[in-house]
Amino acid sequence: MGSYNILVIFCLVIALTAHKNYADSFYNVLDYEAVGDGETDDTLAFLSAWNDTCNDDDSEEWPTMVIPEGKTYLVKPITFAGPCKSGVQVQIEGTIKAPSEVSAWEGLDNGKWILFKDLKSGLNIYGSGSVDGSGKAWWDQSCKYHPGKGCTKLAPTAIKIINSKDVYVSNIAVYNSSQCHLTVHGSDSVAFQNLRINSPGSSPNTDCIHIQGVKNMLIRDSNLTCGDDCVSIGDHTSNINITKVHCELGHGISIGSLGKGGNEVSVERIKVEEITFKNTTNGARIKTWQVGRGSVKDITFSDIEFDAVKNPIIIDQYYCDVRDGCNATFLNATGTTMTKIAINVNCSNVVPCTGIHLGSIQLSGLGKYRNISSSCNHAYGQATGIVEPKSCLLPLDPEE
Ligand SMILES: *[C@@H]1O[C@H](CO)[C@@H](O)[C@H](O)[C@H]1NC(C)=O
Ligand SMILES: *[C@@H]1O[C@H](CO)[C@@H](O)[C@H](O)[C@H]1NC(C)=O
Ligand SMILES: *[C@@H]1O[C@H](CO)[C@@H](O)[C@H](O)[C@H]1NC(C)=O
Ligand SMILES: *[C@@H]1O[C@H](CO)[C@@H](O)[C@H](O)[C@H]1NC(C)=O
Ligand SMILES: *[C@@H]1O[C@H](CO)[C@@H](O)[C@H](O)[C@H]1NC(C)=O
Ligand SMILES: *[C@@H]1O[C@H](CO)[C@@H](O)[C@H](O)[C@H]1NC(C)=O
Ligand SMILES: *[C@@H]1O[C@H](CO)[C@@H](O)[C@H](O)[C@H]1NC(C)=O
Ligand SMILES: *[C@@H]1O[C@H](CO)[C@@H](O)[C@H](O)[C@H]1NC(C)=O
Ligand SMILES: *[C@@H]1O[C@H](CO)[C@@H](O)[C@H](O)[C@H]1NC(C)=O
Questions:
Q1: pTM for the whole structure
Q2: Which family is annotated (predicted)?
């Protein structure tokens, strides 16, 4: 499905719900005895409201679970499972808050807090409210920054969406997740729009958005400031557009890590455009492990602005089963860097990188990094227009 189609459906959903009032198709958590004082456990109220929303089969439009404004709802690990009778909507106006103690996950899956699964008839999450991951206790015991006995590697993702189709998430804020903020696995036709996602730069593994096994996804008009990747794109993804996104702190937009442990990799048609990176450790990155198999192809980063970024353009290996079948383009990028190597294409002699295109890139160094350069290892491709620092790609295919 094209971005146009996704947008049309998206607008249609919004328009229909905004202009018609099917009173009986709204399920307000307060009518299910949610308290919303931030302390009372509102999990059961949310589950009951979801149950009725999901089982509603006589609404003319997608039934809506409503979380009213002005209140904070404490919700324990929860699963909103389908299949439902039709597409469903979740209107978040208040704040949904995770338990702040790690013990709330005792005996439960540490990997998730709010899970949406098996919603193949559609899911629309919207509203001006927020989702507070209360992640501090998890950060404080994370193995990344606090290694040692009792440290944890896996912490709850704030909102995880799996095995679903026609998913829209818009306008809400998600912050301070224990680990990833928004994750999508194994889903098709997804649009994220107008999101605000925030966590401290020092919070461990808190990707703003992580996707894996997803096809046909659009992420746009969002401000993403997190401790780890702004957006990370995992294996088995295709046709992903990321546009008009501001990434701050954390590690930038990363395709990978892919193929760790020799996994099959398949990533294609990724378009990242009109992105600003501010004070991130990487900008546009592709990272695959040499031991993997598969291919990474048709990747474009364009119209990029870097502001005090450490590795603006970086490829740590990428590969291809099909000879000459892989390619990645970096086009029209400007801005400043805080390391000497501003363009780094670092591949191996075993698996060289081919089909790389650099076009119209003008970077300059900040502070002591006035004299910046490019670095290439086994990197083949072409440069067009002005490329500063000067490209070091080799023009010839290594096997010719
Ligand atoms: C991404 O953009 C391309 C070209 O602009 C378009 O063909 C494709 O349908 C878009 N995909 C999504 C998921 O928005
Ligand atoms: C869910 O809804 C169904 C039918 O609408 C009802 O039979 C069932 O008791 C409800 N379960 C819960 C946990 O509310
Ligand atoms: C997120 O957590 C940090 C650190 O605990 C805190 O300073 C900040 O206020 C929190 N953000 C929000 C929006 O609550
Ligand atoms: C993102 O930040 C910009 C600049 O501060 C602001 O104009 C825009 O409305 C923000 N977008 C969202 C979705 O908050
Ligand atoms: C980048 O972020 C760090 C951590 O928040 C901050 O200390 C530093 O001043 C920022 N640097 C720039 C150049 O904005
Ligand atoms: C990658 O190669 C395909 C097939 O040759 C081509 O259609 C596509 O435009 C290329 N993409 C990039 C990003 O260079
Ligand atoms: C290059 O990217 C900038 C944003 O970084 C944009 O304003 C400009 O129009 C782009 N130039 C071209 C030729 O597309
Ligand atoms: C290239 O990758 C190798 C292996 O990971 C690493 O040792 C080396 O420092 C990298 N070179 C650059 C310029 O990043
Ligand atoms: C800048 O760096 C290049 C290569 O890294 C080096 O050859 C050159 O001498 C440096 N120039 C200055 C003025 O330091």
A1: 0.93
A2: Belongs to the glycosyl hydrolase 28 family.
273 lines ligand 7 (CB under 6 A): no
With vertex at residue 90, the alpha carbon angle to CA 86 and CA 96, rounded to the nearest 5 degrees, is 150
Structure tokens, 86:
């039709």
Sequence spans of domains, the chain: 3-388
Q: Which atom of ligand 6 is nearest to the CA of 328?
A: 13
DSSP conformational letter for 329: E
How many whole angstroms from 150 Cα to the centroid of ligand 1? 45
Q: List the one residue out of 67, 190, 81, 208 whose CA is nearest residue 133.
A: 208
Q: For the segment 53-101, what is each residue's pLDDT rounded down to a tens digit?
A: 999 998 789 999 999 999 999 999 999 999 999 999 999 999 999 999 9
**C-alpha distance from residue 345 to each of 281, 318, 328, 336 (Å):** 16, 9, 11, 18
Sign of the CA dihedral 290, 304, 196, 80?
A: negative
Which residues approach ligand 4 with their CB closer than 6 A?
A: 194, 196, 221-223, 246
Q: What is the largest CA-CA distance in the chain?
A: 71
Question: Is there a contact between 205 and 155 (Cβ–Cβ < 8 Å)?
Answer: yes
The single-letter code of the amino acid at 162 is: I
287, β-bridge pairs: 316
Known catalytic residue at 251: yes
Q: What is the pLDDT of residues 249-291, one digit of tens each?
A: 999 999 987 767 667 778 999 999 999 999 999 999 998 876 6
